[in-house]
Amino acid sequence: MNTNDPSDKIIKRFIQLYNEGKFKILLEETKNLIKQHPRSFILSNIIGASYQGLGKSAQALKAFKKVTELRPEYPDGHNNMGAVLLELGNLEQALLSFKIALSFNPNYAEVYNNIGRVYQKQNKHEDAILSYKKALSINPNYAEVYNNLAFIFQKQQKNKEALEALRKAILINPHYFEAYNNMGGIFIELDDYQSALNALKKALSIKPNYAEALNNLAFILFTQGKYKEALNILLNLLIIKPNYAEAYNNLGNVFQQQGKLDKALAAFNKVIFLNPKNYEGHNNIGNVFKAQGKIDQSKKAYKKALSLKKNYAVAHRNLSSVTNYKIDNPQIYLIEKLMNCSSLNDQDKCNFFYTYAKMKEDLGDYDFAFKYYVKAGDIRKKTLKYNIKQDEELFLKIKNTAPKIKSFSLNKTFKSSEHIPIFILGMPRSGTTLVEQIISSHSNVTGAGELIFMNNHGSKINIDEQSINLKNILNVRDNYFLDLKEVSGNKPYVTDKMPHNFLYIGLILKAIPEAKIIHVEREPAATCWSNFKHFFRAKEIGYCYDISDTVGYYKLYKNLMNFWNKYFYDKIYHLNYEKLTNNQEFETRNLINYLGLRWEDDCLFPHLNKRSVLTASNQQIRKKVYKGSSNAWLKFEPYLNRIFREL
User: Fold this and answer.
1) Which of the chain's termini has less CB crowding within 10 Å, N or C?
2) Which CATH architecture has domain 388-646?
């Protein structure tokens, strides 16, 4: 022990205080003691660590700098100073400090880990991996390094390797809650929500108020349509961590999905207030304005996001959806430059290709537009690992199960509901959004949008993977109405415009016999083309990204609708989109009459309906009903090899 330093006993006590997280007490005691030992580099180091623990980086940096002045050859001082510089974003100076530390201790595993973190922030992924592997060669049981490696692998879309790294981290440290949370995040990316829930619950069992895990848990509940549960978690989370921007971002998404756009906007604005450079927050604000039909404001928000991150591919695609391009638009040149970067991942390529295809279509260059719609679709299909055989098997199971479901009779075993659901279904892009807009213009109807409730509660029983009995059918009914009440707006009729509910018609009519079912049909070629050229955020729609798959799926859909018609020909209202647009008042009056509603003239003016619309049709329905949209695909007919003739 240097004579400038306090006794080993005192140092041991200070280490205990540090490990217990009692940074304030530690700082006070160390500051008092350093008056007696002003040249103690160990005490200066402890002061720096205390400030770091309290989140006071500037003071920590000053203390660690003093350590390096008092003992220049002390590697811990340089490493600690580098760690603070890294936190402050001064990456080059941090790297220099770490290299100085290595010059005094070439086998310092923690320094190699920190150098990896610098490279990670610089997006030098391969350099980061080399650094992390060097750290592991020195200390094979360094759990944090495996966790950091997993982050890099995830960025490289190597989820298998990322999960393996996290498993090693957990094997070394079974209480490593960050690793469990990160594992949950990867499973979310893979749409394996059950595995994600298991990992997140493990993280929360170790640290119950772990904000990041609670935020991820809320996200899973949100994707499952459990908006109330997600909302409760997020509101409680924001009490624990009031300035957590990511939680506000998820809160905004929940409010937006509930149609509470003013609250969504407030949440996203809070994200921006907490971090003005949060480009995702600006992008989400653009999405809210777009859903409200405020196109100029949505453009401004997307452009703000792109000013913060010019290669933000999602914002480019969103901006393209609200822009009618002219040849001199500078975004065209930028996209041409960005989409040819060799370092692009598949997700960004896909978004850039869709953006470029839209630009070329607007400019009348249909050859290039088609080429890039195909390229974008190829990537999306590969990412989703879609194979139409999966859907062929699904449709077969549904048809085989339907007679078993139909054989049950609810009689009077069910309680009547205070709401009547109106299912508007059919192929996506067939006019379902317009029909919902018409119906929800009525004063007794709430337009609830695309609800995933039937899929949540009925997917297993619909294909005989859950026992088909009276109890389970009643459970589908009860759970559906429980969720529906949350989005009903206290009106007696509620629309559920999930197009793929056509898969559940048999179960719907058995579990919810009072339901109204409207099947919207559109000209087949127009429907298929519109599906193919659109990017859908929902990962379940995999058939849209290859024109042959789109046509194949359309045939499966038509076959299933014919099947339902044989069973329930008098229970399904068929509405033709072209007839609706050509003879609007006649078809609208028939539709309202079928629903058992009194006539209201507002139903003839759906473009004046102020409700939020989150689907890809949110701009079209802000315009008056117009004819001829089903012919838009014809400009691409020369490139389609007559594939629509099969229809």
Assistant:
1) N
2) 3-Layer(aba) Sandwich (3.40)
